[in-house]
Amino acid sequence: MFPRPIEQAPKHRRLIYQLLLPVSLFIWLLPLLAIFMTSIRSAKDINTGNVFGWPSSFEMFANYSGVFLRSNAGQYFLNSIWITIPTVAVSISLACLAGYALAIYRFRWSMPLFFLFIAGNFVPFQILMVPVRDLSVQTGLYNTVTGLVLFHAAFQTGFCTLFMRNFIRALPFELIESARIDGVKEWRIFWFLVLPLVRPAIAALSVLIFTFVWNDYFWATVLTQGEASKPITAGLNALNGQFVSNWHLVSAAAILAAMPPVIMFFLMQKHFIAGLTLGATKG
Amino acid sequence: MRSGHGNSLRLMPVLFIAPALLFFVVYVILPIFQSFYISFHEWDGLGEMEWVGFGHYAYLLDDDRFYTSLKNNLLWLALYMLAVPAGLFIALYLNQTVRGIRLYKSMFFFPFVISQIVVGLIFSWFYNPSFGVVGHVFEFFGASPPSILGDERYVTYGIIFAGLWPQIAYCMILYLTGLNNVAPEQIEAGRLDGAKGWRLLWHVVLPQLWPATFLAIVVTVIGALRSFDMIAIMTQGGPYGSSNVLSYYMFETALSEYGFEMGYGSAIAVVLFLIMLCFIVAFLWKMYQDEKDWR
Description:
heterodimer, A: MetI-like fold, B: MetI-like fold, 2 domains, 14 helices
């Protein structure tokens, strides 16, 4: 193990390390703590500049409910959910199929197609912006939740396919070979043999894509306008304008917007990290 | 051997891959070529397109705002790279087995999970000279606080600093998992040979961490060139376009309040794409080499 385990170090160094841990975490998360403290302060504290001191009163409930009562935050939240969940479902389904094809079958186009999916992942969004926006306008999908879902699903399919293909390739190929020899049909092999085995990959991709899409801001501003289909990230920008200098409300809204991915991360931490490291981790 | 026989085995991959490929081509691959096409035209997004050839590209050469954005993009790339060693440093710091370390690791990872819009908002407030933390710290020392986001000299550094926060967390997690996979025998062997500290890290550990380093560099380059959200929420490219980057300048131009300039916007997007393409080709080349070894 590197660095040398602290258990082997002299006692005082072990103590210093264990004291340093909470201190460094506190500094690291200071911006977050500070904004949380702001979100439970009263407007008076904000105006009198009480940033570090003890809050003159705790307004957590008033501020957080104020976000919903004084703005369209509720609508934005619902929109985010309606955009995120279907995107996760569609992109992962497509990627299971495509990843299976690229991993199991050897055909001439398998390598170029695989690299096409990878390369597509890396492109800057701006090179897609004008045509995708135009396509959405032409098909009546501009400013709709469906329009955002279709784009996100298509784009995330690239990453999901890359991930699935690598995951399926690491499965023991003999399983599939022997099923074929037994005369099992191809789609049945996929459905009954491979799909149950890729459940960890599906879990990893679900949390990851959820987070990516929930946090998307660019496409939300390019493909929507007005309240009906705006997700919470774009909504937050609108709130920021609406609550100018009402930092207690803005920070409460920011914390609310950040909550769902944070909860997802804590519930499915192992899968999340497995996804981010492209499955390089074991346990 | 992964070769099959019979017609079904030849047709199956096509059926399996067709839906994903169709989606991907319509929304990702074709738009790239369409953007190239549009960049040779004058277009407001509604009416007829008018052919201008390389006109927009010629115009770019004389556009100060374009040069500012390009310069800032390079600054982002260079400074964002600090996330890689910083992430390694924190990963080494946390790679212990004391009680509660798992919780510490996930808390350190926290900033990455949060939307960049939220991170941007947090730091806008943090930097705010009259309400924020920075303002109060300066006042505490009796100095008048600088307006970091309002000053052309500091603004880009201020945004990059905010962007580094989640990016360091990302690199840290890549290195933490990498450190898990480092072979303990080699480290022990290195220690027996008398190597420790930096020498051990440099000669024994880092070579084994190369996959993590590669991935960290890839995601950091992409992150730097994609930077958009933070600029949009913190400064909208201001003051006077001094914190602009190509991605935001493109957006601002194409969907400008003074009339959409889709053609010129696309030309900026093409430049950004070509910069990214250099990296994409390098990444793919490396991955292709790995694939060959794997077979």
